[in-house]
Amino acid sequence: MEWNWNWNDFFGKVAGVIVTIILTIVLGLMGVNKWVAQLIAGEGGDIVEEASKKKEEDKGANFEISEAEIIKIREEERIKIIQEIFKEKENEQLKKDKEQFEKDKSRIDAERRQASLREQQRQRELKEENERIRREKEEMEKENQRIREEKEKQERITRRIESERSLERDRKKVRSQLSLDTDYEYYIVLGGIENAYLYIYNNSDYYVDKIIIKVEYVRDNGNIYNTVTVTCNGIKANSKITHRLPDSGAGKSLTAYITSFYCSAIENALR
Q1: Model confidence pTM above 0.70
Q2: What's the CATH number of domain 177-270, 2.60.40.3230, 2.40.340.10, 3.30.200.20, 3.50.50.60?
């Protein structure tokens, strides 16, 4: 028995099996089902049959496709399907990348909006805090101004009181150094006073501008017969002046006392 080997057919089938195995492994790793790999490899003859029919229609029923052309057709179909698969995978990846990009963009935009809102809130709070601090500062300045004015007022009152006290002390001192004396003649039988004189002594170191003195003419029974007011102007320091008193038809004695006086040197010290 003699074997007639068709080496082209043998190597073509071996090559087809090898290609089927490789594509099954590669496309399996890529997520493509095994039947797709078999379809690409051409096992079952569908692709070849379609190509044969097309050849027969074009060139006649007696035309026979060679094994090399079958391998070429299978190779072209495999390449075409692989390209479509890769393109589909690429489109799916691009779609996923686009969706992820949109999600990331939306997330970033949301984070930016939140950050913008937080910054606006922070600015508002900072503005309100600055306004509160400004108002408190103004209130504090007003309060400090009021305290200063009150303190100055109290100091003026204190100085005024001290000045008035000092003035009163000086007045009393000058008053204690002003003295009076009288000299007169008294008629025992008929009564009355004549040749009466009032002596005013200024034993202080101040010039007394004015002094007002009241002189009373007193009867024997103690009743006041007449009253005379004497005003003396310009009494030098440590000096004496004499004032003539009017005569009286009644009265036994004279009583003189100072009602008021004015010393400009003392009074002006208060101003």
Answers
A1: no
A2: 2.60.40.3230
